[in-house]
Amino acid sequence: xxxxxxxxxxxxxxxYKESELLDQLNFDGWYELLSEEISYTMPLRINQMxxxxxxxxxxTLLFDDDSTTLKLRIDRMKTDMAWAExxxxxxxxxxxxxxxxEVSENEVAVHSNLxxxxxxxxxxxxxxxxxxxxxxxxxxxxxxxxxxxxFLADQTSLGTRNLAIFV
Amino acid sequence: xxxxxxxxxxxxDEMTRSELIQYLKDTVKPEEGxxxxxxxxxxxxxxxxxxxxxxxxxxFVAHKxxxxxxxxxxxxxxxxxxxxxxxxxxxxxxVLLNVCTHRGMKLCRMDNGNQKNFTCPYHGFxxxxxxxxxxxPFQKVVYGxxxxxxxxxxxxxxxxxxxxxxxxxxxxxxxxxxxxLGDIKxxxxxxxxxxxxxxVGLPQKWNVDGTWKLGSDNTISDSYHTLVSHGxxxxxxxxxxxxxxxxxxxxxxxxxxxxxxxxxxxDGFAFPESLIDExxxxxxxxxxxxxxxxxxxxxxxxxxIMILISSMDLKGQKISHTSLRIWKPTGPDSMEISSWMLVxxxxxxxxxxxxxxxxxxxxxxxxxxxxxxxxxFTDITQNSKSPYHLQENIVFNYTMGMHQEPVEDFVxxxxxYKDKFNEANSRAFFRNWLDQITAE
Lengths: 167, 440
Description:
Chain A has helices at residues 2-23, 27-31, 67-77, and strands spanning 34-45, 56-65, 90-103, 107-119, 127-140, 143-153, 157-158. Chain A is α+β, with helices and mostly antiparallel strands.
């Protein structure tokens, strides 16, 4: 039990740290948290009647990234022409309901909720991206690294002008 | 102390319909390259657009590959109206008004699926996927012999198919789809008839506080913005630097349809080599010759479709991707973008996978190309809402390329300009738009 609490604390702190780096636009710092083998995907939420079927499609991915393409996205932010985030949005990532689902020797599978607030330009209306994350973290050389992120938004039609931000 | 001014802000909302139409004719001057700001957000202009364009034109609703089996359906919106596109039990495609004929409830609230019947959530009227009404709860008790079910089927919307694209129109008097599309078909062949194409998954959707027209305007003529709006992509080395986006042709084929064709492709053939036989079989010689040289192609089918073939270098491989999106108006100053990705059905799994990844990286909601466009669409639209723009009749400059003459030696149909840095297609688009919304 004691070990469970320590692990829960460690993983939660990792997720908060990750949010802080993204909210502070420290993308290089964020990239350091990723495993080279990262799979970073966002399937499409759909309206489905039958509860037996998943209400999302993994055939359509809104993010379909690995370490190479995530690096491209980050390098793009450093050009002075990445207009979608120039000037940058203010973002606030609220991570909650952190549930450790599986623990193996050096990996944990963790589910959490994300409520991402985005304030863009002079907009007075808030963009909210709400959804569930399914992550896998792996201990690499003593540090937790993100091996897999799967994010499913709650909206079928996103109420934000683009996904120029990370989820 | 008060400041007085004799300047009046034109009150479009107080004008009669014919005064408004006259005002539009007086202020929108496409041939002079003068497009006034107010048209990008004024509610009265939007009312005209909905009535005279979106209730009149042929609109894209689905690709045939989305409903391959009997019973398959997708729900879509056209002209502010939800429709169900079905592969009916009779083997035919149906486009059905998603409104129960009894009391108006939205019949189907799913994005897609496979069903024989649709049952209304309100009172349980039951319709076949062909639209026929087949069941009414307690019919004998509540209607006796007075209800004729054969007259109560779902309203079938007129539709037709070209290049596996299912179009529908809310206008029973519209010209045929064939005539509406005209010569743009030659180019649609390159996008959707070059091989058997299939939609990957479902369309992704997101919302932008910008007018739908800026999407079409950008699609039909604007290769010039690539240098700056998408400058970051060249800086990353994904596309060449400098004026690469200039090379090729700008083509207008009538009825508000046109394209920018980027060629030649310095990287060589951007499509799967394994499908060359299929391409040659399905395209004519001239079309195949264009495909061989294509770097990219951006097609606008009026009013609000964008079709894109784009090629790039990703992970040391040259790869192309094909997509279709619609700029769906959701208000005078807002739209929902829906984006479909398509791929050659007979390509290798490896090629499909890389094409999908290239598409998602560069286009769609998170695309590093596409995301920068939404800034332009939003801020132009929001600027245009100021009454000052009406008071001063602020107009934007669409005169680029007015000194150019079309060329005669291009193999495809249309009015063709050499090089893509030109606003001729926008002038033609807004002429067509103006004629439509000012039609009596």
